[in-house]
Design goal:
The complex is a heterodimer of chains A (about 240) and B (about 400). Chain A has about 240 residues and is an alpha/beta fold. Helices cover about 20% and strands about 20% of the residues of chain A. Chain A has one domain: NADH:ubiquinone oxidoreductase Nqo5 subunit (Beta Polymerase, domain 2), CATH 3.30.460.80. Helices cover about 50% and strands about 10% of the residues of chain B. In chain B, α5 packs antiparallel against α11. The mean pLDDT of chain B is about 85. The chains are: A alpha/beta (about 240), B alpha+beta (about 400).
């Protein structure tokens, strides 16, 4: 029997391509430095691994244009980071104890940073098999940056999500509606100062762990303390 | 003026409206069609709002968020080993594959590497979850177009794979088997022989589906030339996995990056298709299932001996840093951007799931298609709701 898969309708190059080296990543940094000038704030290159580039807010869209023209036309993701340490830690404090002292110092990660909020995006070059992670500082009093929707159609949903979760505005975005939450939802859930209500109501690991085991005749009573991690199995 | 009853009034209005429509030479009015959130033809709770002109879609928009669970926020209050329990549930049909990139990111930050045997077993389980995931797609595909038989075949043969996953990990759906530094356990006795038999069965299943479904004339006429996505559109939307390869983009993260996994030790073909239509996407997935069975066979042949767990401290603290690791999951590129501050848990985890990008192309691709093709296109794009909403 002749099957479709026997007819050679597929074309693929058999020879494995060499994986990119750091020379290529350095070339990308040079390209961006020439194109952006002062707009390129900082770079971080981990040998044989990855490249981070931090650019100024004013050249955010231009960075996307330069990289897209250089072959980075595969849009991977766009999001943000809130560098404020969480005022509640991991929500494991004993509610009866006085609240512990926590650091409020903002320390940014690789490629540095000056502001609490940083934009985070990644673009890939599928021909040269290399990717670059981009960062961009956003001042607290003006959380707006140029939208990437004219460059990458896929940025539309990612910017909507970032707007909803971090409250970052995107100038030039066609439609910044909420994706997940109701339209009149107040607050930005992924900001660190937005409390995780499940942990506020019942601190982890929860009061169930210190209760004595139930007696045999009460075995029918089930416990529902892990409400936030179950119930997702249906398809 | 006589007083009309409600029923009379309604029929009068309807007659007037019909006349008005005839008067503009059968020009029909627009209509909004709401598909879902609970509809037999949607996978789970995705809602599609489509504006129609006659039989054609003018504008369509998926409405997400019916299954948003806030995993990115929840990871911030958990320790690194606890996070795998959560991320198992992102793409629940290939759940082991979700754990791997996160664990690899944590290992990258800790600068440890799993022992070779653990890398091989990880890759085997990864490919088994791909088979479990995609074989369900192949069966489900028939149901979307009214063919009932393939889904029974798919559930029959997928059961063997789920039994294997259960045998090795203890969990059919949510293995939670991957650990930082290796795996929870080694493979049980007799598992390797059984897996070889199951892989043979699965190749038979692929042939069966190809003969029954892909060779079917009706199936081809419903699939060929429908929902074409060109390569440049696919790239700008960030489509990944089989959806990208069906548009001719030769991009597979198993081959195109260096990872401490065993894919570079085996010989497999990355299939691409030049057409970019529904048929190409489904055909690529069928071929990928075949390749996955071959990968598993090759890995079982040269499974190295040794421990399955590296030396890791009892209390895992991940050094401060940032890491991005993505793997080629059954649905496409699944990546985690992990930020650690040297604490017990991650500071921030950005979950890049494949279906979120894959489904964002829906407003573009549904423009101008006919109503029955909506379901075909959605089926061929293949998404898991948990993978969209996270």
């Amino acid at each position: 029997m002749v099957r479709l898969s026997d007819t050679g309708t597929s074309e693929t190059d058999a020879a494995p391509k060499a994986l990119p080296g750091d020379g290529l990543r350095e070339g990308i940094v040079d390209l961006l430095r020439n194109a952006l000038g002062e707009g390129l704030v900082d770079t971080h290159l981990v040998p044989n691994d990855d490249l981070w580039v931090r650019v100024d807010r004013s050249v955010w869209r231009h960075t996307g244009e330069v990289l897209a023209a250089d072959g980075f036309d595969y849009f991977c993701f766009l999001s943000a980071i809130d560098w404020l340490p969480s005022p509640w830690g991991r929500g494991e404090d004993d509610p009866d104890d006085p609240p512990p002292e926590r650091s409020t110092e903002i320390v940014q990660g690789v490629a540095g940073g000056e502001t609490r909020f940083q934009l985070l995006a990644r673009l890939n070059d599928v021909r040269r098999h290399v990717g670059v992670t981009l960062k961009c500082d956003l001042p607290d009093d003006d959380l707006v940056v140029d939208s990437w929707v004219p460059l990458f159609a896929g940025a539309n949903w990612h910017e909507r999500e970032t707007h909803e979760m971090f409250g970052i505005g995107f100038a030039g975005h066609p439609d910044l509606r909420n994706m997940y939450l109701p339209g009149d939802f107040e607050g930005y859930p992924l900001r660190k100062d937005f409390p995780l209500l499940a942990r506020m109501v019942k601190p982890w690991p929860g009061i169930v762990d210190v209760e004595p085991m139930p007696a045999l005749e009460e075995e029918e009573e089930t416990d529902t303390a892990e409400g936030d991690t179950k119930g997702d199995e249906s398809s | 003026m006589t007083v009309l009853s409600d029923r009379q009034q309604l029929s009068y209005i309807a007659a007037q409206a019909a006349d008005a429509r005839l008067n503009v030479e059968l020009e029909t009015e627009g209509m909004t069609l709401n598909i879902g959130p609970q509809h037999p033809a949607t996978h789970g709770t995705l809602r599609i709002i489509a504006h129609l002109d006659g039989e054609q879609v003018v504008w369509a928009e998926p409405s997400c968020g019916y299954m948003h669970r806030g995993y990115e926020k929840l990871t911030e209050v958990r320790t690194f080993p606890q996070v795998t329990t959560l991320i198992n549930r992102i793409d629940w049909l290939g759940s082991f594959a979700n754990e791997v990139p996160f664990i690899l990111a944590a290992e990258k930050l800790m600068e440890i590497e799993a022992p070779p045997r653990a890398q091989y077993i990880r890759t085997i389980l990864f490919e088994l979850s791909r088979i479990a995931n995609v074989s369900l797609f192949l069966g489900d595909l028939g149901v979307q177009m009214g063919a009932i038989t393939p889904v029974f075949l798919a559930f029959r043969d997928r059961e063997y794979v789920l039994n294997l996953i259960e045998g090795a990990t203890g969990g059919r759906f949510h293995p939670n088997f991957d650990r930082i530094g290796g795996l929870k356990d080694d493979l049980p006795k007799g598992w390797i022989d059984e897996t070889r038999q199951v892989m043979r069965k699965l190749r038979g299943f692929c042939d069966e589906i190809e003969d029954l479904l892909f060779g079917n004339e009706i199936f081809q006429s419903r699939m060929r030339g429908i929902g074409v996505i060109p390569a440049d559109v696919a790239k700008s939307f960030g489509l990944s996995g089989a959806n990208a390869r069906a548009s001719g983009i030769d991009w597979d993260l198993r081959r195109d990056q260096v990872l401490p996994m065993a894919w570079d030790k085996v010989d497999f073909k990355v299939w691409t298709h030049p057409d970019g239509d529904c048929f190409a996407r489904c055909w690529i997935r069928l071929q990928e299932t075949r390749e996955a069975t071959k990968i598993v066979d090759q890995l079982l042949d040269d499974l190295p001996p040794g421990p399955v767990m590296a030396k890791v401290p009892r209390i895992i603290k991940v050094p401060a840093g940032e890491a991005w690791v993505a793997t080629e999951n059954p649905l496409g590129e699944m990546g985690y951007y992990v930020v650690s501050k040297g604490d017990l848990g991650p500071f921030r985890v950005k979950i890049r799931s494949a279906s979120f990008n894959n489904i964002s192309v829906v407003p573009w691709v549904l423009k101008g298609v006919y109503v029955p093709d909506i379901i075909t296109i959605l089926a061929s794009l293949y998404f898991i709701l948990g993978d969209i909403d996270r």
